[in-house]
What does this fold into?
Amino acid sequence: MITFKQYLTEARMAPLYHGTSVANALKILSQNVMRAGSTPGDPYAISFTRNLKFAFDHSELVHTPYKGKAVTAVLQFDQQKLNYNYKLEPYNFFSQKQREAMRIDKARPSKADAEKMGDPEIRPEFEERIVGNKPIYEVKKYITKIIILKKMSKRMTEKQLKALKDFGIKVEII
It folds into this structure.
């Protein structure tokens, strides 16, 4: 059995994921800066998750409706390195503030509320975020891998794939 301290240490060693479109990933990497965005009820933050599936699902949900068949990618971050220079805080998307902003009454959304938010599955949150309008500079030093789903890779151009690989960060197609 592990101690509570070991549990906390292991949790801080887990990678963090940030889902985005390939176009946005290329922009982040070429500028070597990741900027905060705003979400309902919160002014500015950069969100991460410990759940790779959630990162892909969220990214597809956010990017595909607006850009048709956008290709999504997930940037994998070294949580320890990131935490050394930026304050990461646990984040519950279904906080009181978020529920009020999205007009949801319950602590956990109902299936209908989850579908209204574009998430028909009710999943536990595994999020961390950097709060404030503070960009992550030299972002490439925190990214350990770029992950793309095989089904998405079929929609990528050779030019996009080469551009991602040219940054010297491992690109993994799963």
